Amino acid sequence: MDISSDRFIEAAREHRADILCMSALLTTTMTYMKEVIDALHASDLAGRVKVLVGGAPVTEGFAQTIGADGYSSNANNAVLMARQLMGH
């Protein structure tokens, strides 16, 4: 992962994000998603920012295991999931 978990949190705070989306291309980067989610839950953004994950190696089961709020297998469904997470 090229960006620290703290940077994700800073960016979410700076941009007043409602959703933080992450995608993994390789299985070796999937584990970092949980680090970001854990950092988010430990921050002042806990409960305010939803997390949506996806990417080629990511499954719905993995998303549930790491505590993501949503999962999508592709970009089109990610938009639908994001709208659902926001109550639209």
From TrEMBL:
GO BP: homocysteine metabolic process; methylation; tetrahydrofolate metabolic process
InterPro entries recorded: Cobalamin-bd, Cobalamin-bd_sf, Met_Synthase/Corrinoid
GO cellular component terms listed in the entry, alphabetical order: cytosol
Domain B12-binding: 1-88
Gene Ontology molecular function: cobalamin binding; metal ion binding; methionine synthase activity
UniProt keyword GTP-binding present: no
Entry keyword set: Cobalt, Metal-binding, Methyltransferase, Transferase
Matches recorded under Pfam families: B12-binding
Name the UniProt record assigns to this protein: Corrinoid methyltransferase protein
Organism: human gut metagenome
